[in-house]
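Next comes the chain:
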Amino acid sequence: MPRIIVTTDPAHLIDDAPVLLDERVHSVHLSTNHAASQLIERLVWAIGDAEDAEGARAAERVRPLRPSSVTTDHHSSSAHVLT
């Protein structure tokens, strides 16, 4: 039986890739504009969710060199006493 499966790219996700759409399809799903539009809408949602999942996973793997909340100040604000 024909199926449409949308998942994330396993090359981008080391863990098991989530399946975001797994649907049996028949020619009736394309028999009218309304039915075809509904199928396409489900595909759009699943593809968007897959892109979001891949983007979130990629963001987890990328670490900044230095946390943005930490600032380094090379100039001391204390006064120097000369003797």
Remarks:
- The longest strand covers residues 19-24.
- The beta strands are 3-7, 19-24.
- Residues 33-61 form the longest helix (29 residues).
- Residues 50 and 56 are 10 Å apart (CA to CA).
